[in-house]
Target: TBC1 domain family member 8
Amino acid sequence: MVIDAVPCELLTAPGPESGSNALSFVIQVRRQLGLCRLVGALDAVLDSNARVAPFRILLQVPGSQVYSAIACGATAEEINQHWEWLEQNLLHTLSVFDNKEDIVSFVKGKVKALIAEETSSKLAEQEEDPEKFREALVKFESRFNFPEAEKLITYYSCCCWKGKVPRQGWLYLSINHLCFYSFFLGKELKLIIPWVEVQKLERTSNVFMTDTVRVTTANKERDFSTFLNIAEAFRIMEQLADVTLRRLLDNEIFELDPGLQDPTQITKRDLEARAQNELFRAFFRLPRKEKLHEVMDCSLWTPFSRCHTAGTMYTSDSYICFASKENGCCTVIIPLREVISIEKMEDTSLLPNPIIVSIRSKTAFQFIELKDRDTLVENLLQRFKEVNSSNTFLAFGSVCTLGDDEPACLGTEASHGKERSECEKENNYLLNAEALRSDFHQSGMPGLDFGKSREQIKESLWDDHFVEYGRTVCMFRTEKIRKLVAMGIPESLRGKLWLLFSDAQTDLASHPGYYVHLVEASMGRCCMAREEIERDLHRSLPEHPAFQSETGIAALRRVLTAYAHRNPKIGYCQSMNILTSVLLLYAKEEEAFWLLVAVCERMLPDYFNHRVIGAQVDQSVFEELIKEQLPELAEHMKDLTALASISLSWFLTLFLSIMPLESAVNVVDCFFYDGIKAIFQLGLAILEANAVDLCNSKDDGQALMILSRFLEHVKNEESPLPPIGNHHAFFSDDQEPSPVTEIANLIHDSYEKFGDHSVEQIEHMRYKHRIRVLQSHEDTTKQNVLRVVIPDVSFLPEDLEELYDLFKREHLLRCYWAGGSAVPERHDPSRPYAEQYRIDAQQFASLFRLLSPWTCGEHTELLAHRTFRLLDDNMDQLIEFKALASCLDVMYNGEMNEKIKLLYKLHIPPALTENERDSQSPLKNPLLSTSRPLVIGKSNGDAVDYQKQLKQMLKDLAKEKDTKTEKELPKMSQKEFIQFCKTLYSMFHEDPEENDLYQAIATVTTLLLQIGEVGQRSLSLGSGSDEFTEDLQPEASASEQDAVFTDTVKSPHKDSQPSPVTEGDWTVSFEHILASLLTEQSLVNFFEKPLELKPKLENAKLNQYSLRTNGMSCQSRTLSKINS
Model:
């Protein structure tokens, strides 16, 4: 690159030596003419990092061709700051060195030390290349000027497309923002996109690039391409968007992820670990608290295939898991509480690095080809001890097995049976010892013998499977067991297999007595959840005999109430009653409780909460799957939201509310084995089976009827139970019944045609659609707030919408850097819409400066804080959007009397504090003297005596006061009035009619001061009446000016003596002020001139972000200096 040196006499500073060997610091600027400009443009396109900065400071060593870069800058001002720092801090110290090499070494070391000092060393050390990350961090901070709390996560070189033109530059991903910087053809491009404003994040392609990351906000789409590793970049962007949106918009769920509560502690590794953790928990359907520790390639001995199966071992806090590389071949879940020993075996050529994990059911798992075996075993043993120490009762044995030799009580119930029975008798809560199905078994139905024979065949198949693959939670899970599940689990094994597949058995065995204590603590308590539960108890499978008796109803009540007590954030949600009632049919009461825990807290995450976010996310994923798998149906039904609303109950109740019970339980079988994937694929199979009819449907109602009729006729001919109707389904006897569909065939088709989606694919789709769902909730919140506020203000709806966006952004700007506690305090999705976003005094002052038409110079900040105190009715230091909109509406669209009333309120308590009231008055102008003659000039040059006009004004005010029903405003003291005048003077500054306004306000202020003094004097003479009379004459001693007010007060008795006057007696009322201001036309014109909010909004959108970031950066730097 061609560099042109600036003249040395201006921009060089000599080092410690003199003569030709002197060292020099040289400022150089980039030549921008002719061919050099083209070369610079090409450099910028190819790599922004390779370009030379417009200004640089170089250390020049005489006799050497090497120049050492000391500093660089994009502007002359920036490089001059660096130059001044060198002169003040470095140049005078160089004279102590003896040779040039020492100077060069010292200067370079000093510069590197400064860079390290300005950045977070801890942050840099966590990155793969600390030196490069430090450089990127310095550039990020200097280019975007964020506060120190805005932590950079990572950065990538890429292109940002502007139309058809790519801009090569650097993409910076921080905890709250996506930022892009480029310097192209001499033009600088800075792009800042808050993650919370991202509405869609996807990998796509355009005409020029086959692989692009598209970031969509409310107003624009941005495409980024030419990443070195686009998969990694997109994964980090996806994680950051998800974390930030959940932290700021859905914090009721986010708090379950404590590792990400403090955003300043998040690193790139943390995000990658979080993604891996979530995928691990979703794949094996483990509790959210489980943290993944090791992931290792290995091989596991699989006795059913008589060989070692290659796969991956995953170890977490309480589990050892294995998944084969071949999808569906073999999966194993080993809770550490089931483990007896973990041992290393002798290393041989046939069995390299083996370990043996022995479990309580007298089974051992052999893993080989573990690279870091010693460390793995050491860590596993440590966690094994921790699990055992927290579960000392395991010594008695608590193995859940399936078969003829199964103990009557699963888990630890055998060892704790007596204790529990005594506890239950003591508290009169007799828990069901058996599943309700066994208590209410119906017999004598036609075809029952045939059904039993089919059940016996299924049981025999499962017994054979248990012998070969295991019968505990640690069983080998293969494609064979999936086929057995798809056929339908036998009635006698269903509840126990649900416990094993969901691993609710581990929770049950780990918490003996927990459920009983919950029942004791929750029963009899009155709460909203309890009322909802009571209302829905008799709506839960009312057609089943088990819930037509108090036994079943009481068990259902206990389970639901206990869960609401365990998890008050969820409490009770509709559809939980239907699911729980089915669980009680096939599992003991305590087992049903832990099955409900497994479903609500890990198998259907975020489904059962205030906003059912999880269910809506999966509905959105289902829409995408319809477009992908059933394109013809998607093409016909342009708006798939109708199908999504129909299918919502499928997901919330696992088809239990819209299928016959004997068929729906087969669906629940698949759900407990395969998770939500089973519901997705079954939903697709149902839509495919009805695709022709749906394409011919005329409206959403007809589509709903088609699907309801189809699902009502999904039968289970192999079930030993009699058919049980479903009162939730839509069916009309007037129409011909639909053909019967066998549930086993429907499930088989779902696996064959739509079973190829992996858990990883579904989780990625959930990430993408969670963004859309959360933003959809934000739009709903906005529309509801606007609907409430619009009738009360005069702003245009589009202006009010922009004002709401600014209000919300101000709230979020504070949340970005205010620490972890600020978010829950101010944003609660469970609150009413209008109360979800609130701002504090500092945030309000920022918006006031940007939006208020009452600009008062330095006085604006003070006026903003007074306005905030006035609007903060409940004194919680936070105000809502409606308060801001109403206040601005008065300023922009109010009548003059409304504006003056607002100003008046801003200068009396509570808006005006005692400290402000006592501040020194700026009003020392002779124009305000009370001895000034009150004469008003007319435009034609005539003068009018003000005496008569003042008399009439005060009379009118008195009459108005008598008829007024509104609560009277307190009178204003002299100190408060002085502050009021100060505000008015500030408001008129730089107004085109400034001189006229100052003259008018001086006249009005003089008049009001005299009114206040007359009132003061009347009180000192003992007059307590506010009535007016024209018959009384003034005192002979009254001054000439005071005679103006003689008609306004009653004259005291001749012999009375004036009492001492105190400053507190001086008062003036709102009516006095308003009437006085109305006498000056220039003041009337000022307060009644039309004002436009739109220009202020446009300016605020451009400057709100920069003002806030600059202000917080300055504040942060000031604090750093103070601390240092």
